């Protein structure tokens, strides 16, 4: 699909979804929240089209809710609604967030030499499955340039190694701001990120790790899976925190393997898992289906 | 686990859940429903602990909702709440149903010679997974008697064949009323039920069919799966209607098979699928997670 | 990956596998077959590296075997071995086939407007997962041309409809011979093939059907799955015979769905299943892992 | 099913399988092995009914093979065949093992308070899925006695804690010898076994661990899975070695979970996984489908 096709597709989608909004909240569980929220939306002539809630404990636990709603002329009244909502949020000490169907998140995809995860994301994006603007692709190798630029997406080659990490990350942070990035996807980007970098983008960096965490944290998981003789291999998509491979898990999946697999064939099987696990996690993030609480995620799907 | 243990377990469970209620509704989608329902519960000091909704189409489709709530002294005010709710139901032309944690559904299990589905249900029931009173087991064979009576459950042997179908069903209907049955589970009961029988228990008979419907409707599905050379076999649990194997599907599952399987081994593999598919469907029914609409089910889980 | 890269990759692979052979046999089960075959290979200094066998019934059933072997200088002696093997084959009335690692099958891929299956095949081919020469892509639409020609693969646009079927198929058969095709893959080619066409390529046409057969044979399976309210949807890859959707099944897979899915979302989920099911079936065919017997397949994997 | 039924079933099975044998071998890969083995069987009028082989590397790796064969009057000639086979084994430095359809392995099942794995094993045993003599059940609690003795199986209550471990294990070892045990199944036996005990039964103790190893080695895996927020939970069956939870893995499986699960519901879901994973591993062991090599297993199924 050529670039103008993607642009046209995204424009159409934004127009179609311009009257659709989402509200995500998180607060201490307490009586009357649902009633309050549904009254608020009803008063603004917003009709609830999808609703999910979860309470970690009805007695004193945390309450999480995601509502999708439809309202005529939503773009004209969204800011007013947000203003009005502040009173409710204050009364219940809510953390909350509004999102709108016509505001696509702007994503940066980081990649190294292995391109299959990037491929999957761009493919699903072109199929309309991933509602985002792919604003830029960053790589410490040139391999992806041709494919990325063919889609009209800016590509930045930033060589990286541990000796120049500070200046590399400074340049990356500058680019993220220049491109006004909402989401960073590490699609097999094989460089360590420092706490300084990560702190700039809390709960906005999604990584794919090539094992079912917490098994095989760290390097060479397929090699270690082979050595351990596991009968399943997996992949995990998670938000990146300063603890390596310890951030909130968004999605995991596995495939069966047997004694005949060597490391190379484990990697081939693993690629298929990584592809789909990362694509699902990114999709759910883009659709605002994920609420992070501590080191865990609530995923409403 | 002995019978007094089961009784004691069920009593404890009813006591624990006595302040828990469920409300299921179905109506034309229209603005304000969620607001109305949540206000209603809030006014009666009922706190929503789980909520699911689904709209087949926000513009003129059907709206389905299931709410679990907690209210102090619920048994004392449940009938009053139901009375009060009638106004809302009328205003929105709702079909609706209340259910309570301390009112267990009364189930009859029908079985023939193959006992593995009955076994699974009784096992999961003893484990506390299936909140029901197993009021009676009906069979056209004596095989299950010993096991059933050992659990203190009444067992009725009613021989059946097509020549005596009318009188058999008359006796069965009589027993269902005598035992005050809410749910009939056909756990591999290998007799045809007539429309007359089925009409007595609409959306209250759950069957397990030993194929992934609509493949292999009717008799001998494993033999036909073998002949067709499928690479997956499955099982389907559904509500029974007058169209054989055509009722609303509740749950399906499959396992992989390969060319080495013969009919006997397909049946062995299939047993494991049937067991778990039927147990899940019964569990969801008992927890009031299923809303039937036309020939389909909405399952909130 | 650019075309020269693919060519270079395939050349390297053929060189690496030039001493690897495969022998597939099918005959009445009888004592001594394995002994005979293993002696034969041993006498020709061929070392068995993988071996699979299956007997439908040790007493008078059919016997199937697939052997992978390695022999120094295999290309120099392969024809001699084949000549020598004729005696064994005659003695046991075997149907048999030799295949060699350095002889890639030549494939034609047929496609219409939906390109995701074609995409998957070409991707996996570029990744080295599908050892074949993609000799030509045939389509009754122009959509795939750009992508296909960018990989250096000939693309033929042959408009098709039922009024011109005879001349279309004559042209297609001519092309298949011109390109010396061993395998036809129908990657969502939405035209009926006549018995005349199919007879030219027995057990060499692989189709992907978008349901778990035998459910939803024929047109519009996703629409019918939606109407039936199934909880699983699937896809089936099979060899094409003159009975529509009734040919020998090679592979099937499914995904769970629920009441929230509409036809459009079923199709999206289904695409992922179709992609992987077709890619697996093609891979197994290319690796000579499939033996067709009657309307069923033995798949050694 | 009552005890005489089980006995009668096992007798029938032994009679049916009395002419069926299995041969498992392990040695350095080298040319001619398959030829040698198939000639040997052919010369003794033994017909191969199933055969699996695996080479870790055709150039200098290990070779593993499992053959099932059928021979008239096998019990009369089995010892002679074994004697004859010694020459082949010596020539190729094979480790090998013969097993026979009419010689059931004698199993001891160890259990503590959680009975669901024991239940599954006894159920599958009664269904004919697990060809073994259940010689004895050992427990450090009395909970299982009634169920076990009702099946006519000896039950030994041996209280256990770390202070009396040495004497407990001495008694257990004595019992294993008194009952002539071939296989120990730890069906949720919640006591540490010392190296001394384990050394007595190398590759003959099968454990079920309630996580997908190597994740959550050690105690309280469900609690730790909850804390980590994983989206899959699993179970692992493995041979017990002196490294806790580090022995050769036989089988693993998983189920999806989400944020709504608490520790109690994870345990309930986990039970279903543990049940089936353990039953499969025991079945494969009983059918001599597992070859241990180092810390890994080759499983031919």
TrEMBL record, chains A, B, C, D:
Gene3D superfamilies per the UniProt record, alphabetical: 3.30.70.260, Formyl transferase, N-terminal domain
PROSITE patterns (alphabetical): ACT (PS51671)
Function: Catalyzes the hydrolysis of 10-formyltetrahydrofolate (formyl-FH4) to formate and tetrahydrofolate (FH4).
Reactions listed under catalytic activity: (6R)-10-formyltetrahydrofolate + H2O = (6S)-5,6,7,8-tetrahydrofolate + formate + H(+)
MF (Gene Ontology): formyltetrahydrofolate deformylase activity
Pathway per the UniProt entry: Purine metabolism; IMP biosynthesis via de novo pathway; formate from 10-formyl-5,6,7,8-tetrahydrofolate: step 1/1
Family: Belongs to the PurU family.
Documented EC number(s): 3.5.1.10
Keywords: Hydrolase, One-carbon metabolism, Purine biosynthesis
Protein name (Swiss-Prot/TrEMBL): Formyltetrahydrofolate deformylase
Biological source species: Metalysinibacillus jejuensis
Residue ranges occupied by any ACT domain in the UniProt entry: 22-101
Stored HAMAP family: PurU
Class of enzymatic activity (EC top level): hydrolase
Active site: 245
Swiss-Prot/TrEMBL GO biological process terms: 'de novo' IMP biosynthetic process; one-carbon metabolic process
